């Protein structure tokens, strides 16, 4: 059978996340979340062999988790502030210009719901490229305006030297900001997803490509083997995105 018919929705999401690091060279990948982590490891094993992976503490690791180098905190900070890290974070809310919220829902002074807090989102998004992963695409996440800016979007970046949002990946498709005003654009739909579904699940009007909306590229047979046998043999990916 062809790879496209064999691949699950979760595996398409892995591929879409992995593609965020294509061509990045020797930068530190900082995936936050299960699918992005699988994607970063797959990218390292295939088309981005110079990618650096970390255990999140002080060690650079190979895709199998074994140590391959030391990353002292001062060097980590140098990577973070010098544009040599590419983060993929989650988002409780994200708007048309890429502002991300992980802090609270509602008025900050009296929120309806308290979330993670701002954490390192401003530093991440201003000082190195930051992509986003959303496992459940809905109008509650893709909002007209975030309740609080944590990750900084294009309309608040103020020309920061290393600010860039390469892509947003959800369980429905892939998005970027390659438009004149940096408004979110639909890049591709995952198989089985319709444009109407994405529009219904998004609170703002997405920019559409000039030609037909493409489909997220399928994993190759080798990529499927690596995902299933090497990177994620326990199939943990379906915990974030159903099969």
Automatic annotation (TrEMBL):
It comes from the Bacteria. Gene3D superfamilies: Glutaconate Coenzyme A-transferase. Belongs to the 3-oxoacid CoA-transferase subunit B family. PANTHER family: ACETATE COA-TRANSFERASE YDIF, CHOLESTEROL RING-CLEAVING HYDROLASE IPDB SUBUNIT. This is CoA-transferase. It comes from Streptomyces shaanxiensis.
């Amino acid at each position: 059978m062809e790879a496209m018919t064999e691949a699950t929705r979760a595996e398409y999401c892995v591929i879409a996340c992995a593609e965020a690091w294509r061509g990045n060279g020797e930068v530190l990948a900082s995936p936050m979340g299960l699918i992005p982590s699988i994607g970063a490891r797959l990218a390292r094993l295939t088309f981005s062999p110079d990618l650096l992976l970390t255990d999140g503490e002080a060690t650079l690791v190979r895709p199998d988790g074994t140590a391959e180098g030391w990353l002292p905190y001062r060097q980590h900070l140098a990577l973070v502030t010098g544009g040599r890290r590419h983060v993929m974070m989650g988002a409780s809310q994200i708007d048309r210009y890429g502002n991300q919220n992980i802090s609270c829902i509602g008025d900050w002074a009296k929120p309806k719901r308290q979330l993670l807090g701002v954490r390192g989102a401003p530093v991440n998004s201003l000082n190195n490229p930051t992509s986003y992963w959303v496992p459940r695409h809905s109008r509650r996440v893709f909002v007209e305006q975030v309740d609080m800016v944590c990750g900084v979007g294009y309309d608040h970046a103020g020309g920061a030297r290393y600010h860039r949002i390469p892509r947003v990946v959800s369980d429905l498709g892939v998005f970027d900001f390659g438009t004149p005003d940096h408004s979110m654009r639909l890049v591709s739909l995952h198989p089985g997803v319709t444009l109407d579904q994405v529009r219904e699940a998004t609170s703002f009007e997405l920019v559409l490509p000039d030609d037909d909306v493409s489909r997220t590229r399928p994993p190759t047979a080798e990529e499927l083997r690596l995902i299933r046998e090497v990177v994620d043999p326990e199939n943990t990916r379906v915990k974030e995105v159903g099969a």
